Amino acid sequence: MLDVHKYKVKEITTRMACLSLILLALTLACLSMTTPAQDRMPDIPSDKLTEAQKKAVAEFVAGRGTPPLGPFIPMLRSPEVMLRAKAMGDYLRFKSVLPPRLSELAILITAREWTQQFEWGVHAAIALKSGISPEIVKAIANGQRPTGLSEEEAIVYDFCTELHHNKSVSDGIYAKALAKFGEQGIIDMVGINGYYTFLSMVMNVARTPGQKDAESILVPFPH
């Protein structure tokens, strides 16, 4: 009887230990889903900047009127990359042949594809001000094709979505984009998608947080 009792006690102890491990694993999993990811490349204190970084910051401020923020904070680790990215962004954001409404639509599509909270937080507001309807913004956030798109918006949506999903663009969509925007418009649209893909890559790797007080409303797409 004594041996049987010892066996039962050992069995109960083992089961309790297994249960404790399972509960610990579940707790850690929950914490990982609710705890914000740590910023891997936060803002560099001014007294820690190299001479090259100080020069790059000064040039950035002279051009943009603000210190580096968002993707340019991690990019400052490579000052030349940051300044060249700024130059490309200056054209694509402010001088592209596409009107701001369509540029912002392309940016939102790219931010959604990469679940990039910072870019989405910045550009969703700009897109609304530029004339993109709240319904379109909401549909893109939900990973759905918006209804009520204008002809131009539909071409931009289909072109960008095909480019992200298929890594190319079909003849039909290309022909529509060419007729509406011309070859320069196509290159500018590809440039916007590529540029904001690059920014999204930088921030997703660096785990750059979204804007303060802004809700992270993008849910990652299933893999």
Provide a quick synopsis of the model:
It is built from nine helices and no strands. It has 223 residues and is mostly helical.
Characterization of the model:
With 223 residues, this protein is mainly α. It has 2 domains: 1-35; 46-206, AhpD-like, CATH 1.20.1290.10. The chain is built from 9 helices and no strands. The chain has helices at 2-34, 51-64, 72-75, 79-94, 100-113, 117-130, 134-141, 151-166, 171-206. The longest helix is centred in the C-terminal third of the chain and has 36 residues, at 171-206. 28% of the residues are buried. Mean pLDDT is 88; it is low at 22-35.
Secondary-structure map with pairings?
Elements: H1 2-34, H2 51-64, H3 72-75, H4 79-94, H5 100-113, H6 117-130, H7 134-141, H8 151-166, H9 171-206
**Assembly state here?**
single chain
Helix content estimate: 55-70%
Radius of gyration using CA atoms only:
24 Å
Please indicate the count of domains.
Answer: 2
CATH class of the largest domain: Mainly Alpha
The H/E string reads: HHHHHHHHH
DSSP strand content: under 5%
Estimate the mean pLDDT confidence: 88
Q: How is the main sheet built?
A: none
| CATH topology type of the largest domain | AhpD-like
Low-confidence stretches: 22-35
